[in-house]
Structure formats: structure tokens, C-alpha cells
Amino acid sequence: MRLPKHLMPTDYFSVIPKTDVQITALPFYIREVGYCNDRKFIRGACNNYSDYLFVYSLCTMKFKKNDEKHPVHSHDIIVSACNTPLTFSLPISYGKTQREYLYFIIGGSHAQQFYNYIRRHDCTFHFNKLHHMLDLFLEILEIDYKSDPLSAQMHASSVVHQIYLELYILSQNILNAKKQTPVQDSAVNTALKYIQTHYQSDLSIDAVCNSVSFSKYYFCKLFKEHIGISIHQYVTEFRINKSKELLSYSKLSISAIATSVGFKNALTYTRNFEKLEHMTPSEYRELY
């Protein structure tokens, strides 16, 4: 399993690498790349029809294209052709570190073909924060496009191919999930409700599977196909999200919060919290 690194840049920036005939002949090449926190972000007006924008959001924002507005959540990826202005707007109330996002714009001989493989009406793909997709975006940002432009763009082309592959796999999983029978769909929904009702107790995977009367092996596979993550991971994230409410609005101790959302002890809770939020529960409480 590939573990995420998520080492964010220390400064905000935007770069337009120089290109030549060799570079523009690559399957994919970077036309622009950046790490931003602007409240309004607009791209597409000065790009070619065959350019494609990729945005990785680290916050909640709104995305507008062709007068249609779409919500964007943290760890969502937006992929769109630059055939019309694309506008991203963020709440005025957000501080600088609450409105961060990464982006890059590509061209290339394979850009349109690969985009057609994964294109969606709302242009949005939902990813889990534990997925390594963010690290692929960061790798695009970290490449030195000045010292050896061709080598840098070849490197970037390889990473863009990996990103397209991850988006294609996600698209296929969504299509397969939609083909599930009503019984399967109902079973997953029942399991979700069971988790939401029993998350404070010693909730096991066996208990979740028994709640829908499916075998453990079969239902674990079905759940992941439908939701995109394992039962264990979903339960952990659900508990962490519940704990964030208590951290923000209660004066309970960290240990008391850990117990109240179903963790066996404060140490296990803190470790899981840090993996998901990249900060301790105490740091989260100070910020929010």
C-alpha cells in the first residue's frame, strides 16, 4: 500500500514553464502550475480549447462553468477542458490557510483523448484524504521546470498519466456501483445507518456485516466498491468527524471525547486523528 506524504509547499506560487516543439509533442506537458489561496481563481479565458485544467481543493469552494455552479469539497479534484472560463470562488470568511488549492493546466498529444476517458458533467471527482492522489499533484508542483525543461516535462507527463489512471479507475468504480442490484444498494445503506447508530460502541466489522446478513468477505468487498473505502476506514473517519464537533463546541477532555466517539483510548484516537487531519486533536481545537 502506498502511504501518502502530503508535504505541502512553504509558499504560494504560480509558474508557466517554457515550452518548445519537443515538449509540445509529448503525450502531456505542463502549461501552468501553482499552489494558491486566492479567494477567486479564474482560468480558461486565455487558454487553448485543447488545454485541460486540474484542481485539487484543500477547502470548500464553488466551481462555475457555463453558468452552472457545482459545490467543491476538501480533497475533491476538478478536471475540465479550458473551452470556457472556469471560475472558483471561496467564502470571504476563510483565512489564508483555509482556502488552499493546487492546480495545473496541461496540453499534449494525448490530453484530449485521456480527458474523454474520464470526463464528467460536473467535472468533480471525490477522493479520500488518505489517498495518494494529493502526492501526485504535489509531485507535479515540485518538479524543476527551468534547469532541464524537456526532462522535467517528461517527468510531469509520467505523473499526469498516473493521475489520469487513478481518475479512470475511480470512474469505473462509480459505474460498477451504479450497476449494483437494489438489494445490494439497500444493504450498504442499512450498514451505513447501523454504523451511524452504533459508532459509540465497540463496533466490529463482523457486527456491521451481521447487521445486513451478508458474509464478511462478500460484504466488505461490496461496501468498498460502493463507498470507495473499507468499512474500518469509514468507521474511523465517521468517529473522527463526530469528535471534531465535540472539539469545537464542548469542553470535554481529549480522553473523554475519544471514549464518547468509540475509540478505546486517547492514544488510539490521537493517532487516527493525526493520520486524517495532519494535526493533533488539541491543535484542531485551538484552530476551530
Automatic annotation (TrEMBL):
It comes from the Bacteria. One of its GO terms (molecular function) is sequence-specific DNA binding. Keywords: DNA-binding, Transcription, Transcription regulation. The keyword Lipid biosynthesis does not apply. InterPro entries: Homeodomain-like_sf (IPR009057), HTH_AraC (IPR018060). Residues 189-287 form the HTH araC/xylS-type domain. Pfam families: HTH_18. This is Arabinose operon regulatory protein. The lineage of its organism: Bacteria, Bacillati, Bacillota, Clostridia, Lachnospirales. The gene is araC_3.
